[in-house]
């Protein structure tokens, strides 16, 4: 994996959109990004699926229940089914 990849954070997105749309204020752009991300998270939490054409698909992935051993006490414990967010990039995003 390439370690020189820069992370693009929410504040980086705000700055990029401020340059792209100078007529919008920074707070308007922040609010828009927050609404979009909150809608994605809420839909995923309700077992929905979000598809952004040309970008990818967000969905919920269930992880099966499993047992684990505490290495310090050697006690066996069980972890129930958990869920995580899954992202599948689109073909056009993979090509870029």
Can you tell me about this structure?
The protein is an alpha+beta fold. The protein has two domains: 7-46; 50-96, HU Protein, Chain A (Irregular). It is 38% helix and 28% strand. Strands 1-2-5 form a three-stranded antiparallel sheet. Strand 1 and strand 2 (56-63) form a beta hairpin. Helix 1 (10-20) crosses helix 2. The longest helix has 20 residues, at 26-45. The chain is elongated, with a radius of gyration of 19 Å. The mean pLDDT is 89.
Please supply descriptive tags for the structure shown above.
96 residues, alpha+beta, HU Protein, Chain A, 2 domains, three-stranded antiparallel sheet, two-stranded antiparallel sheet, 3 helices, 38% helix
In short:
The protein is of the alpha+beta class and 96 residues long. The chain is built from three helices and five strands; from the N terminus they run H-H-E-E-E-E-E-H. Helix 1 packs across helix 2.
The total count of helices amounts to 3
* Known CATH architecture of the largest domain: Irregular
Give the end-to-end Cα distance, rounded to a whole number of Å: 17 Å
CATH homologous superfamily of the largest domain?
Answer: IHF-like DNA-binding proteins
Summarize model confidence as the mean pLDDT: 89
Number of domains: 2
Class computed from helices, strands and strand pairing: alpha+beta
Helix content: 25-40%
Secondary structure elements and pairings:
Elements: H1 10-20, H2 26-45, E1 50-52, E2 56-63, E3 66-69, E4 76-79, E5 82-89, H3 91-95
Antiparallel strand pairs: 1-2, 2-5, 3-4
Helix pairs in contact: 1-2
């Amino acid at each position: 994996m390439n370690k020189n990849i820069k992370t693009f954070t929410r504040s980086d997105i705000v700055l990029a959109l401020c340059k792209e749309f100078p007529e919008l204020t920074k707070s308007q752009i922040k609010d828009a990004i927050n609404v979009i991300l909150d809608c994605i998270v809420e839909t995923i939490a309700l077992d929905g699926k979000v598809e952004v054409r040309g970008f990818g698909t967000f969905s919920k992935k269930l992880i099966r229940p499993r047992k684990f051993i505490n290495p310090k006490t050697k006690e066996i414990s069980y972890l129930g089914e958990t869920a995580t967010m899954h992202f599948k990039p689109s073909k056009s995003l993979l090509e870029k």
